[in-house]
Design brief:
Largest sheet of chain B: 7 strands, mixed
Oligomer: heterodimer
Largest sheet of chain A: none
Number of strands of chain B: 19
Helix content of chain A: 40-55%
Mean pLDDT of chain A: 89
Distance between the termini of chain B: 34 Å
Distance between the termini of chain A: 37 Å
CATH topology of the largest domain in chain B: FAD/NAD(P)-binding domain
CATH topology of chain A: Fumarate Reductase Iron-sulfur Protein, Chain B, domain 2
Number of domains of chain A: 1
Radius of gyration of chain B: 22 Å
Shape of chain B: elongated
Strand content of chain A: under 5%
Order of helices and strands of chain B: EHEHEEHEEEEEEHEHEHEEEEEEHEH
Shape of chain A: globular
Low-confidence stretches of chain B: none
CATH superfamily of the largest domain in chain B: FAD/NAD(P)-binding domain
Helix content of chain B: 25-40%
Low-confidence stretches of chain A: none
CATH class of chain A: Mainly Alpha
Mean pLDDT of chain B: 96
Structural class of chain A: mainly alpha
Number of helices of chain A: 7
């Protein structure tokens, strides 16, 4: 029955054990990731960020808390140009981080698979 | 009570790092010094610590070194002696202690230090209500004992630090930053990880102020080597869970989403406030500054001087200060006092 309203889902992040394991795995794959101090240099220089709302700093912070919803789609906006890695003052290998994030979020992901990105941006 | 009067050229009030360092420096220059400490022990604030930032050197060794230096000097030390009031008459200071004795001195150094913020005043954080909520000082004792356990006596799965408790807080009336808590939390987080490597450590901060040499490196080490998770956001409230853990609510402000999680221990990084002695004597002499701290002439060239002739300041009676800054400040005060005595005694 439609009452004309729904109950909102809680917005709070509640960390889970699975999320914790995922994060530890990513930190092992990209050890420099731990060093991030959230300065936002990566996002400021991001080529994709000039034309879309892609925010790599926010994406990896959501990943830290196990909030995976829509992150895979977000990450398709990245063109792996590597400017973020060049500017990072803490030497985080962001390019490597993004590739590992894509793999972790989408088991079918193949390197060089930009179909999603092309589809979204040719509209 | 007898009205015994003792005379010294300099009276140092406070037997912490500032008082001891200044007293020894003056005494070594042939100046007669009396030192008054209200507690039965010297340097109790430093003595409550286990290790010091940023190099993890032993706090008790530092206290022992200071005490040794003091006992080797000619300083006349009065423990358990609280100066309750003081006044200046005819170029001399008259100090009255808790026994009713009067002590005379040409110059006085106020080195009355700080008190730790009473975390119970932040009721919403549950200190004194939930057993899993402790202060950074309590944690030092646990680290000192080498025993880190949760309420159930088990190794904690998760330890969470919260910065700025009693500092930068309008509700408490303290707008200032206590300066040492940021790096202390980083130091303690590393110590927790060293003691209990499988414990998850979170550190909630508003800003991380890594102002000193080696501090930023320590922060980086905490992230890289120890996997400590730094979260930007202030925990607004703590509650108990059914299994005696602590549930906390915060916002990860870098994500922009509220956060709810539970932790075995919530460590409140309590700040520094002007000590009772500082408040009392600073107001008694009319040199009371903001938040009850003592007010110096100028923070640039006369930071040890006050508006009162022959009254000097050193250490955290002025503002929150680290041990190393305090010791340097005390030496600087000793130089100022020695200069003052030359003029005062030649007149």
């Amino acid at each position: 029955m439609d009452f004309g309203f729904t109950i909102s889902k809680p917005r709070s992040i509640e960390p889970t054990e699975a999320g914790r394991e995922q994060l530890l795995q990513l930190e092992e794959q990209v050890p420099t990731f731990r060093r991030c101090m959230n300065c936002g240099g990566c996002t400021a220089t991001c080529s994709a960020g000039q034309f879309t709302d892609f925010n790599i700093r926010k994406v990896h912070n959501l990943y830290r808390w196990g909030q995976y919803k829509e992150l895979d789609e977000e990450l398709q906006k990245c063109m792996l140009c590597g400017k973020c890695t060049l500017v990072c003052p803490r030497g985080v290998n962001l390019r490597s981080l993004i590739i590992h994030l894509r793999k972790a979020l989408n088991k079918d992901h193949q390197p060089g698979d930009y179909q999603h990105f092309i589809r979204n941006n040719n509209r | 009570m007898s009205d015994r009067t003792t005379t010294a050229q300099v009276a140092v009030i406070g037997g912490g790092p500032a008082g001891i360092e200044a007293a020894c420096a003056l005494s070594n220059n042939g100046i007669r010094v009396s030192l008054f400490e209200s507690e039965p022990v010297l340097a109790h604030n430093v003595g409550n610590k286990f290790k010091l930032f940023p190099d993890f050197s032993s706090a008790s060794e530092l206290v022992a070194t200071l005490s040794h230096k003091l006992s080797g000097s000619h300083v006349s030390v009065h423990l358990d002696t609280e100066i309750v009031s003081m006044e200046q008459k005819g170029g001399l200071w008259f100090l009255t202690d808790n026994y009713g004795h009067t002590h005379e001195a040409v110059a006085v150094l106020l080195a009355t230090g700080y008190d730790v913020f009473d975390a119970r005043r932040k009721e919403e954080l549950g200190y004194g209500i939930y057993k899993g909520v402790v202060t950074s000082i309590d944690l030092e004792s646990m680290l000192k004992a080498g025993k880190l356990v949760n309420v159930l006596g088990e190794q904690p799965q998760c330890v969470t630090f919260l910065q700025c408790v009693g500092s930068r807080d309008e509700k408490i009336g303290n707008h200032y930053c206590s300066k040492v808590c940021c790096v202390t939390a980083v130091k303690q987080a590393i110590e927790v990880k060293k003691l209990s490597p499988r414990t998850d450590v979170f550190l909630f901060y508003m800003d991380l102020r890594m102002w000193g040499q080696g501090f930023e490196e320590l922060y980086r080490e905490a992230q890289e080597q120890y996997g400590i998770r730094f979260v930007r956001g202030r925990i607004s409230e703590a509650a108990s869970t059914f299994d005696d853990r602590v549930q906390i609510k915060a916002e990860d402000t870098l994500v922009g989403q509220p956060l709810k999680m539970s932790t075995d221990l919530l460590v409140l990084m309590v700040g520094m406030e002007a000590s009772c002695g500082t408040k009392k004597l600073a107001s008694c002499c009319g040199v009371e500054g903001a938040y009850g701290f003592a007010h110096s002439c100028s923070p640039y060239l006369s930071d040890n001087m006050t508006d009162r002739q022959g009254l000097f300041l050193a250490g955290s009676c002025k503002r929150p200060m680290s041990v190393s800054d305090t010791v340097n400040d005390a030496r600087s005060a000793a130089v100022g006092i020695a200069d003052y005595l030359k003029t005062a005694l030649s007149n």
